[in-house]
Write a structure and sequence with these properties.
CATH architecture of the largest domain: Alpha-Beta Barrel
CATH topology of the largest domain: TIM Barrel
CATH superfamily of the largest domain: Metal-dependent hydrolases
Number of domains: 4
Number of strands: 57
Shape: elongated
Structural class: mainly beta
Number of helices: 6
CATH class of the largest domain: Alpha Beta
Amino acid sequence: MFLPFLPRRGAAFAVGAFLLALAAPRWIVGLEPTGSGLPWGFSQQVAVNAEGDSYDSKPSLTVLPDGTTWMAWHAYRTGRDRVLARRIGPGTPGPIDTVSDGGTVHGPPVVTGDGQAGSAWVFWAARVDRRWRIVGRRVVDGRWQRAVTVSDPAADAILPCAAGLSQGRVIVSWCESSDGRFRVRSRVLDGAVDGPAVDVSEGAHDSFRSALAVDKDGTVWAFWDSYQDGNYSIRARPILPTPGPAEPISPPGQNCLTPAALGTESGLYVAWLQVADVIGGEGAITQWHTLHVAERRDEGWQPLCRAHGDSAAATLTHGLIARIEPEPVATGGYQGRRRAPMLLEDRGSLWLLWERKSDHRGRTPNVTGQLIGRRWSGAQWHEPAVLHEGLLDYHLAHPARTSNGRFLLAASDLPRNLRRRYHCLPVDVNVTSTFRQDDWPGWRPVKLPLDDGGPPQEIRDGDRVLRLYWGDLHCHTGLTADAEGEPDELLHYARDRAGLDVVVMTENDFIYDTFLTEYEFAMDHFLANRFTRPGRFVALPGFEWTSRLPRSPDVDRADPRNWNSQQWGASYPDHRTVIYPPAGGPVVRHPEVNNDIQRLYEAVEKAGGVTWTQHATWDLTGHPVELGVEVSAGWDIYIRNPERVHRALDQGHRFALVANGDSHRRNPGLCGALTGIYAEDLTPEAILDALRSRRVYATNGSRIVVESWANGRFMGREAEAPDGDAEISLSVIAPRPIVEAVLIRDGQEVNRFAGDGSRRLRAVHRDAGLTPGTHWYYWRVAQQGTSPRYPGNVKVARGHLAWSTPHWVVVNDRGSAGDVKGT
């Protein structure tokens, strides 16, 4: 139920008057000491956080009615988050203030004015006593007041948004999780918490990101994205001074999220990201991104369309999606915001702004961005133009409007030496350079989920019945420095589009001079637990240990040059996927523990977690938590060059073979790698038991059912052969006709079994007279099809190969020492 706010008398008039005051030229008169004619007090680029020793990110920027400019941002250092803020102008910038109180987990802030000169609010999500709360703190004339809790302390609240009203009042909205649902709620503050928290979103559907805007009549509108029937949709409702009904905005049946809203003199607008599933080449699956804008009119919400009726105001391909034709061209990561629409008012016109990677093929730690803008003049979209370039992570100051064609933003340099430096600078919409939008052929729509799964598979192992589940245990979201996708978006994708049973979001602990913050790690953990539904879907918390080891024996593993991205040629990856039980565990960042993997393993073992290797290079230690080797991923099929895997098996290491997407491109479960998991139940406890018992195997994306036994023992386990005789059996059910199954023993191919054109294959291999010691076996299975080596993180979603986890057959000294024979 939507409960009414209790605004003070005349609130609608006050809000409208405040907005008109902001729009009028007189609001900037006499506030510019530097003589530039700009309301924020400076005309050149200003360094915001040049001092300090924290890793800073995710800024928010606001200009108050008296011209005072405040910026707040997230800061991380040595296992602790903080929220910092600084008055940037007019005049000499003030000191950097610590806004957050105590605690270790604080989320990115939003800063807004409240209609009074010299007064602003900063809001953020903080984890307090195992609960997520929205916390706010007000600054008045440079003095910070006590922090207040805005959300209900009995519920979890994340993702705050705020907008200033008038006379010291602000409105705050957030995403709240309670009773198994995510909903958007809001509250009005009048110098303190004085109004009730009320529901904004409606119905039984989960809702996440919100935006707030005030129209020219003073009505406060809330916007949000809501997930239902496999898609996100954009919805809105007026909430002040009088609550109104919720209204759909985005077209039905489309996947639309992350709204950005703006009230202007000419109208009320909302922009959003629309995402469509596409397939290209020989079966690579990714997503096509467009930006859309709608305007509130008398007849309701109307999209702003181009001349031929297309509602896509921007197509985001360059630097975001690989080329597939005429030749595949991958794109790497980018440390800015590639999918965030922004809106700007400019003297009766509206600008849609977005950020893109400047060089499609640019290397993640070295490529900067461009701020692109497209103007809507009231009847048509004008051609896009480049408004700024050379920085990245662009954020507009609010209110988002120009003064004499100029507007204020914050953006960063490329991270270097564990720091990210931000600048505040004015940009002129009249000073632009040419924007080029290339064609991007070869991608076509695809309907997900794919119809390629067979009936549930069960086996009996002794007294236990095991069912086969499918997992992608190494995935990334936009919380990783060079990946994209909202965490909840990708959890929905894994469950509903990829049809996974199990997923693990594993953000990088440290990469490209960027840290995984306590907030980011805790947010993945929080959402994993909230999305887990025993019997239907399991999401486990984890992270990626992104260590690198020196190639030269003269360089110590603790030398910072090992993880300096500018010197990567002198080191090689030794990454691990870390998977925790639902209770979680710590994120151990390799630069903070001198690259000591034993420190990692101590923490993982204490928390009851497990680890896998990643990529083509790694060095095993033999620690009990090392349970698997990733032999295929969205980057490559590593076991095509099996020497490292075989050498580790020869050295006595025992591990499962797993395959996981390592998805940086928003498609967990469809990256060209899957792990089959034989577990008793679809619960976190049963899945972790299966991982520890190595009841898993690898495919490069297809749901090929593999069941292998050695002398009556299931794969992943030790089998005894007291007489030196071993029987290795295989049963395969594949989505496509099976070509062959190859058995490898001790690094050599010992038998091949050809398929008969059907999707099933059974094979039995017998060895007699094995020499004393331990022998290892595994199967390589191929079905019809190919797995082309596309560049970068682009692979066919459903490849044609599978690999069983090894068997270890032990022959004691009484066994025959004769020649090995096989049938």
